[in-house]
Amino acid sequence: MAARGRPVGTVTAVTTAVLLTAASIAEARSISAFSAPLWSPGPTIVVPTPPPPNPTPTVAPPPTPQPRRYAQASALPSIGVRGGDHPDYGRLVFDWTTEVPYRVERDGERVRVRFDRPVRLALAGVAGDPPRNVLTVRQTGERPGMVEVSVTPGSRLRDLRVGTKIVLDVLDPLPGTAVAAAAATPADAEAAPEPVEPGAADIEAADPAP
């Protein structure tokens, strides 16, 4: 006896469609599984960038040395300068009232006396009437406290300190030298005595006579 309900052909078609649908879903899942990426990106690693190297420090050039500035001449202390003639030498006396270092330099007939203190030198008297063997006396503008003395060729120098005063003697050339012979007249050659060095009393006097 035939079964009641749907025909056999219809049931078979439906079953086949269900099976095909299930197979399609399974295949789709399988393909999706294979097409999925085989790796996933890991956490992002940030590599710190090293700071730039320190720039080379700029070294400022050293300051240009400025010429030494001295006080105005009118503001400097003043000392007197005396001169005098002796039988065989001329004398300059610098009347310092305090002890001041000094030095004497000679270059040919040019003599420089450098005092270690700026000062005005009262040279009017000796500049107008220089002592024996001294041609000119002047204070240079190079440095306050330096005096330049022009002396006769062949003359000799002697400097000394008497208390706080500075003494510069300009002695005649030694007898018998060509300079002394050229400077002497026939009368001088006959009458000229042997030069005598100033004695200790003259050198060590508290107020040396010019």
Summarize, please:
Helix content is 23%, strand content 27%.
Describe this structure in words.
Residues 185-189 and 191-201 have low confidence and may be disordered. 23% of the residues lie in helices and 27% in strands. It has a five-stranded mixed sheet. A four-stranded antiparallel sheet has the order 3-4-7-6, with no helix packed on it. The protein is built from five helices and nine strands; from the N terminus they run αβββββαββββααα. It has helices at residues 8-35, 124-128, 178-183, 186-191, 200-203; strands at residues 78-86, 89-94, 102-107, 110-115, 120-122, 134-139, 146-151, 156-162, 165-171. Strand 8 and strand 9 (165-171) form a beta hairpin. The termini are far apart. The protein is α+β, with helices and mostly antiparallel strands.
Structural key phrases:
210 residues; alpha+beta; five-stranded mixed sheet; four-stranded antiparallel sheet; 5 helices; 9 strands; 27% strand; rod-shaped
